[in-house]
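Appendix B: complex inputs.
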Amino acid sequence: MTVESTAARKPRRSAGTRKSPSTKPELVQLLTPEGKRVKNAAYDKYVADITPEELRGLYRDMVLTRRFDAEATSLQRQGELGLWASLLGQEAAQIGSGRALRDDDYVFPTYREHGVAWCRGVDPTNLLGMFRGVNNGGWDPNSNNFHLYTIVIGSQTLHATGYAMGVAKDGADSAVIAYFGDGASSQGDVAESFTFSAVYNAPVVFFCQNNQWAISEPTEKQTRVPLYQRAQGFGFPGVRVDGNDVLASLAVTKWALERARAGEGPTLVEAYTYRMGAHTTSDDPSKYRADEEREAWEAKDPILRLRRYLESSNHADEGFFAELETESEALGRRVREVVRAMPDPDRFAIFEHAYADGHALVDEERAAFAAYQASFADGEGA
Amino acid sequence: MAAEKMALAKAINESLRRALDTDPKVLVMGEDVGKLGGVFRVTDGLQKDFGEDRVIDTPLAESGIVGTAIGLALRGYRPVVEIQFDGFVFPAYDQIVTQLAKMHARSLGKVKMPVVVRIPYGGGIGAVEHHSESPEALFAHVAGLKVVSPSNASDAYWMMQQAIQSDDPVIFFEPKRRYWDKGEVNTEAIPGPLHKAKVVREGTDLTLVAYGPMVKLCQEVADAAAEEGRSLEVVDLRSVSPLDFDSIQASVEKTRRLVVVHEAPVFFGSGAEIAARITERCFYHLEAPVLRVGGYHAPYPPARLEEEYLPGLDRVLDAVDRALAY
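Resulting structure:
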């Protein structure tokens, strides 16, 4: 072993003091946690014409999404759902980016994009089938241009890239947005999607919600540089936005979508946010993170800050908030009722859609299964 | 062109050309498929004639190739992707198994996945490691995928046409050591069903079942056995999933003996599934246990040893002898 290679293996104690301007994270923020609007020369124009009604709309989206999410968590605790992946804390990142989209844009979500689904007009109760165990998704992706939830981490970024390549081939000016998280940023598929989209100049926005935790692993276990800076190495821009700021999330996503539509290729948006709840209802964050951290992020709550802004700028009155409260409770009630009434699938659904054009073995096994079920005296099966 | 003699690789090339020509949604993508025409020249000249937008040189990333093909299929395209060699498919295995195979079921039938994954496979060409494997059972085990492998030029042409027309994902295993074997291809014929086996040689004493590269070997085995007065029937499966058990059953009910031959390792190979099901279906017809000839449960050996590892004429004849000895 040479002296040189030995040296390279030593811990670099000086690493912390090295100056590197490119690693200083910059955060786009338009609304402070206190609800104060701050100017931003680059991104103000993307929300310059936003009306008070639209601002109230964003607020309503976030409140209803959080209400739906809370109801789903309760339904899991009551045994009505097998599992739930809460988006608590990430409402602004999802609603801001979701409302930046056009109808003809296409969304590739993870399994936590309930707020984006809401923006796309997917009925929230449709999201619950897979968590109740009656299907594995099942909504028609093409009715709302909202793809099925993808559970394997990062896989959908390649689907988004391929879809975007198709959009470009069609000569359409639609854009595609791929959601993923800080954990997914370590997946090879995400790196490959960056490569493919850059090489083909595909109209895709990579929207990474860095919620600081991949189950129990903090972002430091995934990366040594701020995630948005990874884009540079692939040859496209990356930007970090305050993911708890709905206005900034909206503005930055609009900018990225505009680039895609203009044929300028992919963009990476890192929405800096926090997973306020557990990874899923099966997780126990008290095992791996401190309450103080969560409390610090509570002060940056996305809903609270927009409410402060709406109130201080007289864009919403008491009546609006009261009405929304009623609407919110009604949504919770409806979700509860629909889920409780959700029937188990027919047992033959096992075989139903295994293939589009059929398969001899599936036919054979379905027939054997039917014969087995029919062999019971009451004819009702086992 | 109606009937013409051509190499198996050329037949696939002609089939891809026809698909590109008749359906604007068909795309060919993979590593080196453009100017080079693929390392085996299967896509030779296609980019020149159909452009870079339809015959796409991709980055060197198999998961990315299949993952983006899935996205293109969601957009309405019908991608035919090439994995350069059998042993390089594994980076894409996740996308194939967790996404490509399951998307139709996950969407309750609302999304179709008309993607063909072409994989040159098998040994016998003296290649380095990872270039000679037969991973078909790893795909046949996965519901949602269809797995086929032609043994001759005519089947290669027509099965590719049918695979591209399929709304299900098809893993298309191309017997690379037979790429240069010539056969008659009639481009105006009416092909039989994609997933139906063919009896390529009739016989009465024993059935040999094979697919892809081993069909030719089994025909040679049958020739050799005939010299010893034994009449072997050879069934070319063509499709590994679905697998045409009816045709095997019909043959075995006649011959009462079955030997399955494939290059893939015997252990948990497609021969095991065939043996189990045919034993179940033909228990009272069988005069001997179903025997299998294939690769060993060891990593594919260096090329100088591959003739020992791969089923050859003598090893198949030995199995035939053992089956007939019962």
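The mean pLDDT of chain B is 98.
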